Amino acid sequence: LSVRNGVLSDNDRENVQIHIEQITQEISKSFRSAGFPLGFKNLILDDSHSKVMEDLWIESEKTQKARAYLSTIVLLGSILEGILYYEITKNHENMGKAGGCTSAPKDSKGKPQPFEKWSLNDMIIVSYKCGWIDEYSYSYSESLRKHRNFVHPLLQRDEMFVMPNENACELSRTALKGIFDNLLKRKSLKGTEEN
Fold first, then answer.
1. What digits encode the pLDDT tens for the residues 87-126?
2. H helix and E strand count, the chain
């Protein structure tokens, strides 16, 4: 408006544009959590898998901003499932440890079920029992898991369902970040041991 009204000269237009870009970048930084969504690349080495996690994170930010809280929690639960599945299946050592865990889901013959059939609850419990996530993250992930399951209408009907709010979303985000940080710290410690 200042340019159009003649308050700024044509020579200052470039400086104004640079200033606007700087302000826009600062605003963007304020509304995006540190490390997310690009942080997934630090944890998940498979580019296509980390891209899916990034896209889900961005979508969860949009739904939360739109006050679509149940949708936000469903997305956050999907991200949690994606990062835990990756951690469990990323190498033979982890698959052996997870499959051999006493809490691993078993088939009718007592053998561990294929990882693709594990529920989010199975993944959370086994990740905790294997020492990949701490007790704090484990306990808070229960709320995220429980709300995420309310995507099923019959469960909403049968349980005393209360539509989640902003606080439930933030608690779910905190749980997800806690688990992410646990896994990232484990990865960096393991990398240090190998060097």
1. 999 999 999 999 999 999 999 998 989 999 999 999 999 9
2. 9, 0
> Which of 52, 104, 110, 103 is CA-nearest to residue 81?
52
Q: Distances in Å between the alpha carbon of 29 and those of 22, 36, 102, 108? A: 11, 10, 43, 51
Q: For 71-96, how does the pLDDT look when each residue is reduced to its tens digit (9 = 90+)?
A: 998 999 999 999 999 999 999 999 99
| Contacts for 57 with CB less than 8 Å, ≥ 6 apart | 36, 37, 40, 75, 79
List of long-range contacts for 106-113, beta carbons under 8 Å, 24+ apart: none
Structure tokens at 154: 């019959």
Please identify which residue in the block is written with the tokens 């499959």: 99
pTM of the shown model: 0.74
